[in-house]
Specification:
By secondary structure, the chain is mostly helical. Helix content is about 75%, strand content about 0%. Helix 3 packs antiparallel against helix 15. The C terminus is likely disordered.
Length: about 400
């Protein structure tokens, strides 16, 4: 099976560092919305603004980071971004302990973490492409995806329990420490990266990642689909937190449970990615999984109090994350294979910036909609729009000769 293929000790260390930060992030799942609701008594508009502003401003800050990362040693960038996230997150429990924690600080920390996330992912994708053979990219991405979902199975319930026992900032501390451990793990990988001459950053270099995506038929439709789907799914999450925690009276551990239990589906989807691609082809898997993931979120609009509500959310999330667990590693591999080595960081940064801005814009808009109509109606509207998003998926596999040539022979 794909999971048994050996990819070497350096990949093993990278995977271990990823696992540590993934588990920390899962423990801190929804920590900022929970702090905003339970500590700062924030309403739907403020919770949505927290998620939207952090992503939007962080994405704007990250715009020049793609070209900057492209010409730096990727492992050093990854370590630096981990340390930045550690310092930013640790400021939250420090301020809470001093009685100085406020909404503005949560916003600033969200911005810093969002920008560092984008830079880290851009560097990590470029580094992975140099670390493993092209034939092993799907195996590597599937392992990362499996780790993400495995961590999510364990993290949110433990995080919710930790918040109930030790207080609302406990999981933020765990998340911060995980980034410190990740930095140490990445630093221990060893080996050398080729020194690349770093040209002076010019304004015309900033859109290079977007130029590459939008001129490639193999990437453009998937890029547009990803922005819209991720935006609509994520726009509903803060509203669902308000609906379940405030309006329906669910406890934090129950909120964590309904998102953790279905993640076994994400693990299953990630494990099936390589055999399904081998049997049916990448294009068919992307189209099928991409279409199916849009069918589930509408069900969240019908959540009710008590056990029936818990069961409903678990079923909906199970279907959604199974499709996402299959789609994500196949998309990540497809994107790397259709991007020249000297453009990977810029392309991934542009993709992440666009996705973050899309999520921020839709989260802000859905926060306003929820303030007028209520969280349940806003969640239903997002679910209905998602049903149309399969129209944005590529109808046929389209790879130009330029795509194939540049993926192998980079052009400066």
């Amino acid at each position: 099976m794909a999971g048994r293929r050996a990819l070497g000790p350096r990949f093993g260390r990278l995977w271990a560092a990823y696992a540590v930060s993934a588990y920390g992030t899962s423990l801190g799942f929804g920590a900022f919305p929970l702090i905003a609701v339970l500590v700062l008594d924030s309403g739907p508009g403020q919770v949505a603004a927290l998620a939207a502003a952090g992503r939007a401003v962080g994405a704007l800050v990250a715009v020049p980071l793609g070209p900057w990362v492209e010409f730096r040693r990727k492992r050093q960038v990854m370590v630096a971004m981990d340390l930045i996230r550690f310092a930013a997150l640790m400021s939250v429990p420090a301020a809470f302990a001093l009685g100085r924690l406020g909404f503005a600080q949560l916003l600033v920390v969200s911005v810093v973490v969002a920008a560092a996330d984008i830079a880290f992912k851009a560097a990590a994708g470029a580094y992975l492409k140099t670390l493993v053979q092209p034939a092993d990219l799907l195996v590597a991405n599937s392992r990362f995806e499996s780790t993400t979902w495995t961590a999510t199975i364990v993290g949110p319930p433990l995080g919710g329990a930790a918040i109930g026992v030790f207080g609302p900032v406990t999981t933020v501390i765990a998340d911060a420490v995980s980034y410190l451990l990740s930095a140490l793990g990445i630093r221990s990988i060893g080996g050398t990266e080729p020194r690349t001459a770093a040209p002076r950053l010019r304004a015309r270099d900033l859109p290079e990642g977007w130029r590459h995506i939008l001129t490639r038929p193999a990437l453009r439709p998937l890029y547009l689909n990803t922005i819209v789907v991720n935006g609509l799914i994520m726009a509903s999450q803060p509203l669902l937190a308000v609906l379940m925690l405030r309006d329906l009276g669910f406890a934090p551990w129950q909120y964590g449970l309904v998102f953790a239990a279905p993640c076994i589906g994400g693990l299953l989807g990630a494990r099936l990615a390589q055999p399904l691609v081998a049997r049916y082809g990448r294009h068919r898997v992307l189209r099928t999984a991409g279409a199916l993931r849009a069918c589930w979120p509408l069900g969240l609009a019908f959540v009710r109090p008590g056990l029936p509500g818990i069961v409903l959310v678990i079923v909906v999330q199970l279907g959604l994350v199974t499709c996402c667990g299959l789609f994500n590693p196949v998309l990540a591999t497809h994107r790397l294979e259709h991007t020249a080595p000297d453009r990977v960081a810029r392309t991934l940064a542009a993709w992440s910036v666009s996705t973050s801005i899309g999520i921020a814009a839709l989260t802000a808009g859905w926060g306003l909609l929820a303030a007028v109509t209520g969280p349940r109606t806003a969640i239903a509207a997002a679910g209905l729009l998602l049903l149309a998003t399969p129209l944005l998926l590529p109808r046929r596999e389209s790879v130009s000769p330029k795509d194939r040539e540049e993926a192998v022979n980079p052009i400066g």
